[in-house]
Amino acid sequence: MATETVTQSAALDRARSSNSTANFGAIYAGFTAKGIPFGDITPRVNVLTFNAWRALGRTVRKGEHGVRITTWVEMTKIDSAAGAPPASFRRPKTTTVFHVSQTEAVPS
Predict the structure, then answer these.
(1) Strand pairing of 103-105 and 87-99?
(2) Is 88 exposed, middle or buried (0-12, 13-18, 19+ CB in 10 A)?
(3) Cβ-proximal residues to 8 (8 Å cutoff; 6+ apart), any chain
(4) For position 103, what pLDDT does the model report?
(5) Which DSSP letter does residue 64 get?
(6) Cα–Cα distance for residue pair 74/1, rounded to 1 Å
(7) Where are the domains of the chain?
(8) Is the pTM of this model over 0.70?
(9) What contacts 74, CB < 8 A, 6 or more positions away?
(10) How many angstroms separate the Cα of 27 from the Cα of each of 24, 35, 50, 72, 92?
(11) Which of 17, 18, 78, 91 has its CA 20 to 30 A from that of 47?
C-alpha cells in the first residue's frame, strides 16, 4: 500500500510540475470527441492520469476510457564495462489521462 501512495504522489507531482504543452492538442481533441465541452477541459487541473487522480482521493469509474497520450521519460544508461560516465536520454512512453467527469471520490 505504501508503494502505491508513493507512485500516486509522484504521478501528481509530475503532472503539476511539467511545463510541456505538447499533448494539449491530443487531450482537447480526445475529450471533445467524447462530448466534453472544450471550455471544461484544463490539462493538469482536471485532466490527469489514473495515479494522479488516486493521489487526489479520486478514482476512475469502471468502464471509463481515457485519452492516450505520449510522454517522454528521462532515462540513464550506465555502461559499467566501458567505465564511461552515465549517458542520459529520453524515451517515449504512452499513458492514459482521464477528465474529472470520469472520476468519483474514493469512499473513506
Answers:
(1) unpaired
(2) exposed
(3) 51, 52, 54, 55
(4) 97
(5) -
(6) 26
(7) 2-105
(8) yes
(9) 88, 89, 90
(10) 5, 13, 15, 16, 17
(11) 91
